[in-house]
Amino acid sequence: MKENLIRAVLLFTVLAAGLGVSAQSGSQLRFCIRADPKTLNPLLVDDEPSETVRYLTGGVLLRLNRSTQQLEPELATAWRVSRDGRSISFTLRQNVWFSDGTPFSAGDVAFTMERLMDPSLHSPTGDSFRSGEGKVITKVTGKDQITIVFPKPIAGLDTLFDQVAIMSARSPRKEMAVLGPYYLADYKAGSYLLFNRNPNYWKHDSAGRQLPYIDSVRIDIEPNRDIELLRFMRGEIDFINSLDAEDYDRLAAQAPHTAVDAEVSLDAEQMWFNEVPESPLPAYKKAWFASADFRQAISESIHRQDLARVVFRGHAQPAVSWISPANKFWFDAGLAPQTFDRKAALQTLARDGFHLQNGTLRDRDGHAVEFSVITNAGNEYRERMAAMIQQDLADIGIRLNVVTLDFPSLIARITRTFDYEACLLGFVNNDLDPDSQMSVWLSSGENHAWNPAQKVPATAWEARIDALMRTQALTLDRNRRKQAVDQVQEIVRQQEPMIYLVNQDAMAAVSARLRNVHVVVLRPQVYWNIDQLAIGNRGAR
Amino acid sequence: MLIVLVLGGFLGATLVRLAPGYGIDEEELDTRLSEQSVQALRQSHATEENLPRFYFGYLSKLLHGDLGVSQSLHRPVRQLLAERFPETLKSVGLGLALAWLAGLSLAIASVMSRLWIIDLATGLLASILLCVPAAVLALLFVIAQAPGRLVIGLIVFPKIFYYARNLLAASASLPHVVTARAKGLGGWRVLLWHILPVAGPQLLALAGVSISLAFAAAIPVEVLCDIPGIGQLAWQAALGRDLGLLVILTMLVTLVTLVANSGAELVAQPLRSGDA
Amino acid sequence: MRRIRIAAILFLAVVGATCLMANLVAPDSYAHQFRDIPDATPSLHHLLGTDDLGRDRFSRLLYGTRVSLLLAPAAALLSSLLAALLGGAAGFVGGWLERCVMAVTDLFLAMPWLFLLITVRALLPLNVSPLVSVAITFALLGCLGWAAAARVVCADARALCGSNFVLLARASGASGFHLLWRHLIPNLTPILYAQFWISIPVFILTEANLGILGLGVAEPLPSWGGLLRELESFSSLSAQPWKFAPLILLIVTVSCFHIAVRKQEAWA
Prior knowledge:
The structure holds 3 protein chains of 3 kinds.
Chain A: H1 2-20, E1 28-33, H2 48-57, E2 62-64, E3 71-73, E4 76-81, E5 87-92, H3 106-116, H4 124-127, E6 137-142, E7 145-149, H5 157-160, E8 182-188, E9 192-197, E10 216-221, H6 225-233, E11 239-240, H7 245-254, E12 259-273, H8 283-290, H9 292-300, H10 304-311, E13 316-318, H11 342-351, E14 355-357, E15 360-362, E16 370-376, H12 380-394, E17 399-405, H13 407-417, E18 422-427, H14 438-441, H15 460-474, H16 478-495, E19 498-510, E20 514-515, E21 534-535
Helix pairs in contact in A: 9-11, 15-16
Chain B: H1 2-18, H2 35-43, H3 51-63, H4 77-112, H5 116-131, H6 134-143, H7 149-172, H8 175-182, H9 187-225, H10 230-239, H11 243-275
Helix pairs in contact in B: 1-11, 4-5, 4-7, 4-9, 5-7, 6-9, 7-9, 8-9, 9-10, 9-11, 10-11
Chain C: H1 2-20, H2 22-25, H3 57-93, H4 95-110, H5 114-123, H6 130-144, H7 147-162, H8 164-171, H9 176-210, H10 224-229, H11 245-267
């Protein structure tokens, strides 16, 4: 019921805007991205700039509506996941053509899936479909019918198709022939990308007009946030997809209508200790970090409210788990964030034999408690959070050294040499389904940050998490999956291998001349409905 | 000269290769990737594991005119250089012209003038430009929508000014110059006949060095002012630990430095022998 | 002119004394975070306002000046000495030594030193104290910053070797050391002065940028470079002109040094 209501409202806004949008010829949407896309091949996308290109150009079978967080039909008009969760059947839309005029058929879907699942391609998108050994079989049962069978059941199978841009099996232009609203017309590395509207785009608005409304999109590559903001204020670009807190406040003061805070996002900032047994740390430090009491005490002595208020200027909230409140279905509302309590922290520490001596915390054997936290340089939020945590910990007699490193050096330390004590980092989260985080939570996972790629789970609680994560992956009923995932979150909350700090808000800047904008927390926050965006003069309605 | 060039490339490659973080992709942290894909990602750099072998393989390709393909930008290095080198030449040339014009004329004014206020004012101007971070200068130019290339000139100017002023002042205090002045020779004649010839070789050496200073200044300026030149390319290559591209860029900068400095010496030689 | 000089020296004395006694003069600790008033405007208690974390900017400026004003000249001295030694020897001896030193100089000018700095960071332990880290950083800068000056010094030394008065001294039987000490070194000082004065602000600024590599000053210790980094977020500047205070202090200090020393040069 609620969904229908939202749809109705959306439809109405589209209609209303459609009336105002009359002559759009020659209109151009302009915005900036931070870096060059690393690839133009939609199957290999792994970075945000490449994802932008794919989102603009790629046609997908199913699209996750970024606002309602529900799947919607696109190139497939209907779909069905089999009972055993191993196969999915699509009914495809007919009379659809690629941007270069080649017709779209089930053969293209089969071709795309075969390319995607080629093990030598090492596609991140493809890997998310890989649940077990064996071949993926595509069965074309008619011109518009296709069934894809996987060797093992896959949790949340249909949602994964949001990432699969269908490529043409026959077009000589290969990946440049697209089904999305725009095609890439020009690209100057390090400078800009230019997209023109796809003349063969299948979608029409309710009045029968072909989408998208805007003729071309120019994306400038601008690594500097300050300059991006300056260009926005000058009206050279139409929006900023993700704004930081400082810029948001400044913009809100100068041009209140352009700054949008879409509330808390999916991303979390967290800190964890190195618990790798083979790490080059002294034994007594390994013992600290392996103690759940120690980790909990650190977590208790961090003032998350202050982090959110000072560092993020109130545009964030204390985090409780890796699933943020923005994730409508999967968020566990029963969990409460760790409260700031210095006394409790000292009591927890005392349980492990830690004691204060002349203002310095010492362990049972008299070692002064001092450790370093590494974070990536250039990220002001993290540098400031680290400085505040440093102060918080100093208040319980712990000396924290903050070290900022360039990103490759940081990754080398946390994945290769394990020569670090604690790390402060945020993981970008694009997927709603927790199944995409398997490699973080399985103790054998490469991304099991605090102690990756374990042969056997090092602790009982990690073994329990392994079991629960496997259960959720094999269960098809969403509600039962959620119960398992909730339990994982509760264990993580108790053991604190990851100390969750804050969830930042998704903030954006949107020019007043841009219409039909509805900023959401899921990426791409501003242009998720790119084919419906329109440019109109102020008051032209 | 060729040896220095090759050595430059080799040392550059060694520095890049030995620094931690080489051969590491951010993508490794992607939670979707399977174990096999992470391994494959790590293996993709294994060919460059053996540095001497990489370097000699690279050199032989280079001798055949093949500059290779940039790993981070996925484009032929030759094409990247062809696109970007003229941009940088333009910025560096303009910057140097500005820096020398301002630096040398202010230095001369400061040395020749007997007004202490000029000495003070020129010194203050140079101090200010020396103290303002390059990034701030560049950003100010972006705000003012002024051509960013000029920033290179502003960064190099104070250095040229200080060296030139001190050199000229030292020459001006030489006994024969003081005598000439005492004899009532005009200021310009003293400058042209006595001071400049003495300081000439040093100024030429400074000219050679200033070219590499300008290239160094081009990196932050091009990055911030969005000028698609070699400096921006070098920054991108450094961020991406793009070994092949970095080696070429190091060799290119070494070449420019060598040519500039040797050129300066060649010009200075007749001057010196003439002086002696 | 004399009055200006005295004013400059006085100013330097005041700056020096204030910084050395920062513990007594500073109203607050440089690390204390007044979390209720981040980004505050100047007031009686916080003369230059507070930074993003609510730390008193005036206190940070005092402590930062102490760190930078001590270490930057030391590093500048190191680089000038290296330039004098290598450039002077090359110019004086000439021949193959000159060619070798100049080749090394050229290489030094062209190398991507960024990666050396990254390697140095990797070799340092993570729990190094902020002060040691900044000292190492400045030492590195001193070791890497000599090349450009060495070329000019070399040209100067060569010119001097060919000049009349050195020839005269040689003819009168002066030894090599005597020549170097009595005639060459004093005549090289103008260039070395230039190198020294240029290096100080350049090193102060470079130190701030090295924070990106985990070198330089670590939290919570302030430095001039770190304070100047605040200027890089320019959009807030017009509204908060007091953020320019560190820059103005740096410019004034460097200029005062020039004025104080230049006249001594002229008198010498």
